[in-house]
Amino acid sequence: MAETDRIPTNLRTLMILEILGRSDQAMTATEINAALGLPKQTVHRLCATLEQNGFLTRQGNSRRFQVARRLRELGAGLLYNSRDHIARRQILLDVAHQIGETVNYVVPEDAGMSYLDRVETDWAFRIQLPIGTHVPFHCTASGKSFLASLAPAARKRFVATLTLEGMTEATHTSQESLLEELALIARQGYALDQEEFLEGMVALAVPVKDPAGRFVSALAFHGPTQRVKLSEAVERVDVLHAAAKRLSAALFEQS
C-alpha cells in the first residue's frame, strides 16, 4: 500500500465494521482484510478487540466474525437519533391514520424482535406493547417476517436454535410447520400473527429493506380480533408495502 493510500488508524476499525455490515454472511479476518489490504496481524488484532468489547461475535466455534448486540444497538441508536427518525415517524403516523390501528416499527435483536417506534391507535380498547418491548421471533408477524427474509438454508439453521414456546394454542411448536409457513411468507411478501403470540390479537407485517434488498426492519400493525379480522388485515397489506418503500427511501436516501 502506498504511503498516500494508508488508512488512518482511527478509521480502520470503522472500515472493518462497514465491511461486515455490508456482508450477508460472517467473515474471517482474512476475508475482511481482502478489502482493506492492511497487515494481517493488524486486522486480527482489531477484530479481537471488537469481539472483546461486544461489537463482534464469532459464528459458533469458527473463526468467522459477525456483528454482535452492542453494534446492533449502536446502529439502532444512530437511526433513532438521526433526522431519519422524524421522517419515519411521519410515515408511521400516516399509516396509522389510514389503517386505524396501532402501527409498529420493529427490528431484530438477540432476544427477539424489539419495538423501536410505534403509533398507538385512538381506540380506547387496544393492546399495548410499549417501545422497547421484546417479542419472540417464531410467533409474531414481525419476527416471522424477519425469519422469512433469510435464505432457506440460513432460515433452517436459525429456526433450529429457537425455543418454540407455545404462547397460545395457535403457536408453531414444531420446526417443520414454522419453516413451511416461513416459505409461504417469503413468497407472498407479508406475515400474519393469527393469535399466535396473544389470544385475541392478530397482526400483519411486511419487511423494510435496504437498497441491496436486505431486511432492515418490519413494519406492522396489530389489533384485537373483536375489531380486526384476518381477511380485513390482509386487505390493508398494500398500505404497508407502500409505506415500507417510503421508509426505505427515507432511511437510505440516494445521492
Summarize the structure.
The chain contains ten helices and eight strands.
Number of helices, where a helix is a run of at least 4 consecutive DSSP H or I residues:
10
Q: What is the helix fraction of residues, given as a range?
A: 40-55%
Helix and strand content put the structural class at alpha+beta
Record the strand order, biggest sheet: 5-4-3-8-7-6
As residue ranges, the low-confidence spans are: 1-5
Rounded Rg: 20 Å
The ordered H/E elements are HHHEEHHEEEHHHEEEHH
- DSSP strand tally: 8
Shape: globular
| Strand percent estimate | 15-25%
Largest sheet: 6 strands, antiparallel
Mean pLDDT: 86
Q: Report, as a whole number of angstroms, the end-to-end distance.
A: 30 Å
Describe the structure.
With 255 residues, this protein is an alpha+beta fold. The protein contains ten helices and eight strands. The protein has helices at 9-22, 29-33, 40-52, 69-81, 83-99, 141-149, 152-161, 175-188, 230-235, 237-251, and strands at 56-58, 65-67, 102-109, 112-119, 134-135, 191-194, 201-209, 215-224. Strands 5-4-3-8-7-6 form a six-stranded antiparallel β-sheet, sandwiched between helices. A two-stranded antiparallel sheet has the order 1-2. Helix 5 (83-99) packs antiparallel against helix 10 (237-251), helix 6 crosses helix 8 and helix 7 packs antiparallel against helix 8 (175-188). The protein is globular and about 65 Å long. The model is unreliable at 1-5 (pLDDT under 50).
